[in-house]
Design goal:
- The structure is a single chain.
- The longest helix has 14 residues.
- This protein is an alpha+beta fold.
- It contains two helices and four strands, in the order βαββαβ.
């Protein structure tokens, strides 16, 4: 899943989001791009759980991109992930 998250500015933010997701799924691969505000999560977690975990850390998920997005919020031509977390 790919999320757009506001409020991330540094390595501490990256660690906080990564840790929050990996508390729910220790095997989750999480890639955070501070420049684009994208968080890519490779995990079977449902999107609502991921959004709540990120919100609980104090960040705002402003968009859900790709196949995980509700049909009324998915931008056109967006893939389900940035591809960075897939080896």
């Amino acid at each position: 899943m790919k999320l757009i998250v506001e409020g991330m500015t540094c390595g501490r933010c990256v660690r906080a989001i990564t840790t929050a997701i990996q508390r729910l799924d220790p095997s989750a691969l999480v890639h955070v791009d501070l420049t684009t505000e994208e968080v890519c999560i490779d995990s079977p977690l449902d999107v609502n759980s991921a959004v709540k975990a990120i919100h609980d850390e104090g960040y705002s998920v402003v968009s859900i991109l790709g196949d995980d997005a509700p049909s009324d919020t998915a931008p056109a031509n967006q893939g389900s992930c940035c591809g960075t977390c897939h080896a």
